[in-house]
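chain below, 167 aa
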Amino acid sequence: MITRYLPTFKVFEVGSLTGLRAGHMLSQQPAAAGIAKVVKNGYSFIENGIIVGLNSDGTVGNYDKSKHTTAFVHFTEELNTFIDELKYYALPVEEVGDTYPRCIALYTGDAFCTNNVAAEVEGAKFAKVVDGVLTLETTESEDSVFAVKESTLPTGEKAYDFLFLGV
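prediction:
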């Protein structure tokens, strides 16, 4: 089967995102050079579910609580025309300045489900953001911005439900 040869990516499922309903998004700002990426088969991609912010130079970069006043979640809708399955989609990174991730503002109480975490942690209850990636924690820290509970994706894969606590 051809899918054995395709790269797979982390999956992001929208729960309730106020920014999506209100149209509070970043969609025409270029990705910063240091934005969280994965490399598959020699090509770079930005996976859905990383947490980002708007940098002072107008680029979209990894969320940093000390310099961003609003957190956004990267969610570029899947444009699969060949295989309609979420794990086969991520935003291809073009040359710096030519990649435009779509990002949705996060409001207190927003929720989503994803397996896009730095590492699985048994008993995770909170999460912080480290270099744009959700990092699970068993206890709340001063950097925690999400409440977390274990979940599964529609495909049966282990994932986590995230509830945004605010910044």
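The chain has a mean pLDDT of 91. Residues 2-164 form one domain.
thats it, cya
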